[in-house]
Amino acid sequence: MENQNKKTTVIAALVENKPGVLHSVSNMFRRRGYNIESITVGHTEQKGVARMTITVSGDEKTLEQITKQMNKLIDVIKVNQLEPDAIVTRELALVKISVPDVKSRSDIINCVEVFRGRVVDVSPESLMVEITGTPDKVDAFLNLMRTYGIIELARTGLTALSRGVKSIRIDE
Amino acid sequence: MATAKMNGANALLESLERQGVKHVFGILGGAILPVYDALCTHSGIRHILARHEQGAAHAADGYARASGRPGVCFATSGPGATNLVTGIANAYMDSSPIIALTGQVPSVAKNSSYMIGRDAFQEADIIGITTPITKYNCQLSSVAEIPKTISTAFYIATTGRPGPVLIDFPKNIQTDTANVEFTSHIDIRGYNPTITPHPLQIRKAAECLADAERPIILAGGGVISANAADELLTVAELLLAPVATTFMGKGAFPEIHPLSVGTIGMHGNPLANKLLLEADVMLAVGTRFSDRATGNLDTFCPEAKKIHIDIDAAEIGKNIDVDIPIVADAKKSLAAIYERLIKQAKRKPDNPWMKRLEEARAQLNPPNENKEFKPKSLLQTLRKLLPDSAIVTTEVGQNQMWAALYFKALKPRTFISSGGLGTMGFGFPAAIGAKTACPDRVVVDIAGDGSFIMTEQELACSVIEEIPVTVIVLNNGVLGMVAQWQRMFYKRRYIATKLGTYPDFVKLAESYGAQGFRVTTIPEFQKAVQIAIKSKVTTVIDVPISMEEDVVPMIPPGCGLNQQVGDY
């Protein structure tokens, strides 16, 4: 029942760029039983401010509580639930694929081109590919690559910005 | 702006003095020794030596709740800091403003492994440990930042929804020297509590209340922390609305007022539980609708329109859905509602809801003529013996629930108890803290034997520091509340609840230099209390009661307010 109302949402938060902030945010999620699907953190254009992009799933009420509980944290400056229809989301993956023979190598490179990825490292038995896109696109590429064998995989998790001139900024 | 060259320890104490701190509860140790050394030259701050850091934290908490000013406690690194944890969690659950300052091993130490991150002697990650139980915590990294950090800590602890703040103070920063600039400037961009209520929400609330036929007010602890009791009284009298409180709200409204119906909840007053369910509009102020207060949420006033005032936006809609949310200070919101309501036609005192109140009161709260030597009459007797301004703390368990039911609180900040965390051992050190804050008032801890022995070592603190309080031990020789549950829900299979007849609380008191009495009749009890509250030394009154005595009325776990069993 409950699962039917669940939706996945991207929360973008501006936080103080100092030690312990990631801990206090992730601790709050753990303590209140909210599930983080992915989290990315990085600097912003504003000095001393980092941006967290958190993908969470839950029903409407849970998502509202998550936003409020995040807002309560002193080092969290601003929290926004991004509108799913008006955002650009991206994820980057580095994937090392095993290359059993020459035929496979060219097949893989063809796939990489179709997905607009890039080959970033080559060895006699492997290829490393960089691929960027929505998580769905990354998944689709990885599914194709499973036929050849994925040796190693690193995904960054999702990051996102809303479309248009609107932005999340700190009111001065 | 004052600037001076000094070490970190002195910068800290100077900052505390500038915040008006007069008392600190604590225990020292290696990693906080420089701060204690600096206390020698800061005579404006009195240090009260607890005998366990948990006692220090609870004392700071009691100090804060009694006075409205933040309580401060010190502990050394490692075990000193971890011993504070229960006290900090307790303050967090009950939104009490305490400042905990912990020593920490050095952040930098030349040619030594005695430093943070290397598992040094008495090192504990107290920031990591207390993150989920503090409103804010941080570790100092330079002497220069001390004044601003302390100002920020006090500001955060005491504004918005109050709560504990912990500051971790590495030893090398305590001894480092720097030019320190004292400033009261605070700049926290991620923290800006909403104080002023939204006028539209106030209008909606006032209209809803004016249209109500059976309005009721539910006052929580937020009314007390916002110092909004006067505003609550004016709104209640204008609306002619019965006032129920949560357990934490006890004292927000005088419980002898004709509109008072007592506390709601699992061991609430049946009158409060009953009328709450009959109301058509509920004005809830400063409450988080805890499980012990609401019982089963499905049957918690499903028909009533609910107005919820809380300064913490996250409390709106957390446990129950509300119709008119108001995120703001309780005092300002109630004053604003009053301003709007006063323009409306006045309600007639002989309306059916008032008649219903009187009828229900006669039925559910009949006067007690019984003078048996039982908790109910003991606590009603105690009320008569204590001045209105007396501060009562409680331990946790049956003693606490009997106190909630039968000891009427008349003023805010005179009933201090561990509501959220339910910390046994809270009451006695909290009483010491309250007495420190209010030395001219009578302070009494209503205790049980199980709870009292958890922090009984603070008798030494109270005697030696000359902070006299009275402890009334309702002594049933068992962990009474748990035994009651075993009796009611586990077919009387008692396991691990029997405490036996030791210690002898009179001898225990005497061994600490305190005064001890044992009473077995109401007149003896009256006499002992009268002596104790005038005494210059802490007094323990041992009151042996039956181990089979239940706290009733009660709502069995999982049931709703409408399923209360037992008579008041």
Structure description:
The complex is a heterodimer of chains A (172) and B (568). In chain A, 28% of the residues lie in helices and 41% in strands. With 172 residues, chain A is of the alpha+beta class. Chain A has two domains: 2-82, ACT domain (Alpha-Beta Plaits, 2-Layer Sandwich); 88-159, Alpha-Beta Plaits, CATH 3.30.70.1150. In chain A, the strands form two sheets. In chain A, strands 5, 6, 7, 8 and 9 form a five-stranded antiparallel β-sheet that branches. Chain A has a four-stranded antiparallel β-sheet with strand order 2-3-1-4. The longest helix of chain A is centred in the middle third of the chain and has 13 residues, at 60-72. Chain B is of the alpha/beta class. Chain B has three domains: 3-181, 3-Layer(aba) Sandwich (Rossmann fold); 199-364, Rossmann fold; 375-556, Rossmann fold. Helices cover 38% and strands 17% of the residues of chain B. Chain B has a six-stranded parallel β-sheet, with helices on both faces. The chains are: A alpha+beta (172), B alpha/beta (568). At the A-B interface, helix 1, helix 2 and strand 4 of A face strand 6 of B.
Strand and helix layout:
The complex is a heterodimer of chains A (172) and B (568).
Chain A: E1 7-16, H1 21-31, E2 36-43, E3 49-58, H2 60-72, E4 76-81, E5 87-98, H3 102-114, E6 118-123, E7 126-133, H4 135-146, E8 150-155, E9 159-162
Antiparallel strand pairs in A: 1-3, 1-4, 2-3, 5-7, 5-8, 5-9, 6-7
Chain B: E1 3-7, H1 8-18, E2 23-26, H2 33-39, E3 46-49, H3 53-67, E4 71-75, H4 79-93, E5 98-104, H5 126-130, E6 136-139, H6 146-158, E7 165-170, H7 171-175, E8 177-181, H8 199-211, E9 215-219, H9 221-225, H10 229-239, E10 243-245, E11 260-263, H11 270-278, E12 281-285, H12 291-294, E13 305-310, E14 324-327, H13 330-341, H14 352-364, H15 375-385, E15 391-394, H16 398-406, E16 415-416, H17 427-437, E17 443-448, H18 449-455, H19 458-464, E18 470-475, H20 480-489, H21 505-511, E19 515-518, H22 522-534, E20 539-544
Parallel strand pairs in B: 2-3, 2-4, 4-5, 5-7, 6-7, 9-10, 9-12, 10-11, 12-13, 13-14, 15-16, 15-17, 17-18, 18-20, 19-20
Antiparallel strand pairs in B: 1-8
Helix pairs in contact in B: 1-2, 1-6, 3-4, 3-17, 8-13, 10-13, 11-14, 15-16, 15-22
